[in-house]
Each structure stands twice: as C-alpha cells, then as structure tokens.
Sequence to fold (355 residues):
Amino acid sequence: MQRFKPAQFIFTLFAFLMAFSVHAQKLPNVTILATGGTIAGTGASSTTTVGYTAATVGVQQLINAVPELSKIATVTGEQVFQIASESMTNDHWLTLGKRVNTLLAQPNVDGIVITHGTDTLEETAYFLNLVVKSRKPVVLVGAMRPGTALSADGPINLYNAVLIAGSQEAIGKGVLVALGDQIHGARDVTKTNTSTPDSFKTPELGMLGYIQGPKAHFYHTSTRKHTVDTEFDISNLSVLPQVDIVYGYANMNPVALNAFIAAGAKGIVHAGTGDGSLAAKVKPDLIAARKNGTVIVRASRVGNGILARNGEANDDELDFVVADTLNPQKARILLMLGMTKTTNTKELQRMFYMY
Fold:
C-alpha cells in the first residue's frame, strides 16, 4: 500500500489548477448585443411557430438558456433594443453601429454577437458590414421559431454565433450571419422563406461556410471591401439621408415615386422588373426627379444577377446609378451611406462596384 505523499498531492493539485486557469484565460471574450426579434420571442404553446410575440425575452435569459456558452467563451450581454426587426430604423442602426465600434475598440472584447429579428437581419448586417471599424468578428444571429416552440432553433444558432465570434478563423471576414449551421456573408445573404428554419440563404453566390462540431469552417470569402476597408464613418453622424424604394410591377404608376420625393427623399432605389426595367408611365418622372437633384439607383426585384449598366436604360445619359448585384433593400443602405460622402453619381457608382 502506497503512503500518502502531501507534497506530491499539492504539486498535482497546483498543476491542475494552473492548467485550468490557463484554459480559462484562453476563452475568448464575446459580447452579445440583444435587439429583440423572434429569437427573443414567446408563443402561446409549444406548437406555436407563427403568430407568436417577438422581443419579450431579455439578453440574460437568452444567455442562461444556453449554459454550454460558458465552455466556448466568456460571455457578457447588453440589451440594446427590444423590438421586432420590422421596426428597425436608421436611428437604431446608428446607435448599434456606434456601440459595436466602441466595444470592438476595447482590448478585452474579442468578438460581438448581435441577436436580431430575421425580417431585417440582412439589412442590419450589411449596414454594419459597411461601418464597423474593426477586423474582429461581428456575427448576427436570429431564429425562425420562438424559444418556446418545439425544436426551437434559437439556442443552437446562438451557440454557433458565439463560437464564430470567438474564433480566429472569422477575423477579417467582414460581418457574418449564422443560422442553420451555416455561415453567410452580410452583403449577399437574404431571407428566402416566410417561416421555415432554413430561410437564410446566399443564392447563386453561395454561403461562406459551415459550423460543424466546435469549429467554424470557411470555404469562401467576399471579394468586396468591408469594415476597416470602407470609407464610411458614422462616429459623428446623427442622421442618414432619406432614401426610399419604389417597387416595379405591371400597370405601375408614378404615384409612390412622387409621394416619396414630396416627402423629402434625397435618393430613390427603383426595384424594377427584370434587369431593372423602367415602365413607360414611370420613366419620365424618374428622369425629372434626377434633373431636380434626386439620386436614382436602378435595382431589380428579381433577387439575383448583375444589373447591367446601360442595359434597360441609358444610365450614362440619364445620370442614373445601377445596383450591381445588391438587392433593393441593401442598395438603399449603400446609397444612404454613400450620400453622406457625395451626391456625385460617378462616385456613387464606384461605391456600388466596390462594396
């Protein structure tokens, strides 16, 4: 029988505690900024997957619901807003963007996760992709089912988002979106279904990677400039220029266009049919609006493809801008930020091809 050796026991215990301490120190520091949405929603029953109430659960409750987070990061939370994302405004974006930049400038913050409603998640992600001034990971995450539902997707989505935000692999990749075990880039991801959990996709251009096991696997990166490489600075901005979207359809008329301009729109994104076609009844009013100083961007309601400059309209002659591959809602964001720098259409067109 071996004798008990106090010195050896103490040495072993000390080595264990040191190893545990080093492991704890290696965990990344991730801040979760909560804004509301379905991921923070509750339903009347466990089978309620539509018709639930969004934005009812606070950030600490979201964190507590996923105790596994403590194994992959040192997590702190802030409740920035508590809204359904269809109510997101320019003011919300400016507040959120400034808070993200403030946090990322701190050496003890390694990454940020933003919980968000899915309706406008892609828009907030792209806005941040243009204004965040850090290479540290920023990951937006949401859910298609409230946390009270059977097979709720919010907890695993949140776990994956924290995993990405704390990973070395995500540094410098731009603002990311994490849902359904997939990693998407902010510029090209979009919501494609009203209610199913696999709604978020990057059509044609493709997602960036997967989450599998305890690791983020990247296979693609965006070639468009983002975050620290953009020219946009919101640090001293308190308001964004008014830009509105006019939707193209059969039998279209210029009523909505002229109403937006009368209400103070400085820019209009025309979400035209096909390759951004201009209806005969609307084209004269678009031309007149541009001559009167309103910036016009031709986009498409189709959702995929490059919008051809001087294709369905003589953009050079009309002094219009084309949206490249951006969908109308993201074209609106880039136009707003672009117009904080210039109203020169050649410069704005450069931005649409760059970002």
The longest strand covers residues 74-83. Residues 17-24 have pLDDT under 50 and may be disordered.
